[in-house]
Fold this sequence. Notes:
Mean pLDDT: 97
Helix content: 40-55%
Number of domains: 1
Distance between the termini: 19 Å
Strand order of the largest sheet: 5-6-7-8-9-10
CATH topology: TIM Barrel
Largest sheet: 6 strands, parallel
Amino acid sequence: MIDGKKLSYQPTGFIIDSPWIPGWYGISNIQYYASGEHWIKANLKAINLFPDTWFLPGFWSEYGMCTEPSAFGARMIWLENSLPHAERTLNCIEDIGKMPSPNVKTDGLLPFVIDRLKTSEDEIKRNNHQIRFAISRGPLNIASFLMGTTEFMMSLAMNPEEAQQLLDKITVFICDWIVYQKECFPSIDGIFVLDDIIGFVGEDEFRQFVIPSFKKIFSSIDAKAKFLHNDAQGLITARFLKEMGINMFNFSFEHTMGEIRKLAGPDAILIGNIPPRDVLAAGTSEQVKEAVNKAMSEINDHSNIIWSCGGGMPPDVNNENIRAFIDEVKNNSK
């Protein structure tokens, strides 16, 4: 698809990680994070149970939202059956200048992310898969954890120089982190960045604070797939995908496929676009099928689309609804 080739089918795919996998697999979040054996078995079960869909980014070694903030010294709160939380590290705007620059090889949870993949790599290959993506939360997302979302958003308006200093430091960290992942796993041919906070700024702020950082991040390694997740407001983001070097975009279900295609251009691969929580998780199989039909009817050209939900796979999505989604896309592809 990235090379411009036409597929003979309509692909489906879902972003899966710890909000969905542990509960679906029948273990606690703590078990999923702490046990490499549970982690690999849960991911393999999903892939083998649904071989006709794509699970993205594939074998995501992560610790919820704590992964990147941990490298900056954030205190992490671990809960048995819900996502962990990283507490803020910056108490005032003056603390930004004193914030350390992490070593991606040694700091926080990053060595554990790499070791889990190294330990599991042989098993992944035995199942005919590869480690394909270097992954990170985005700079504004990480900043919101380190500083607090409200405080960070205020700093963009009230203290733009200090906010830029913070984003510059985080951007260097993300680039180093992506480069190191590629060094550890040469099979990586994609970059996957998740940042919802970019959906809460206006166009002027987007041009000033978002575009420069994302251009650096998505050019940090030579990668074919350059994948962005932002399921907050995405109309501004869609317009600047090409300028940021992004060719895959997962966006909010509140935007139609046709609307995003018009803004993003014909070459971007769009990933969406039914409601994740209210339909895919809480709806019936029939409601899932109806939502699929609605999404597919909102755009005439179905090329360069991976049919999915408008965001990551939420908690409590059952096998029946996943199967209903996949089957309905197949039915509409004939």
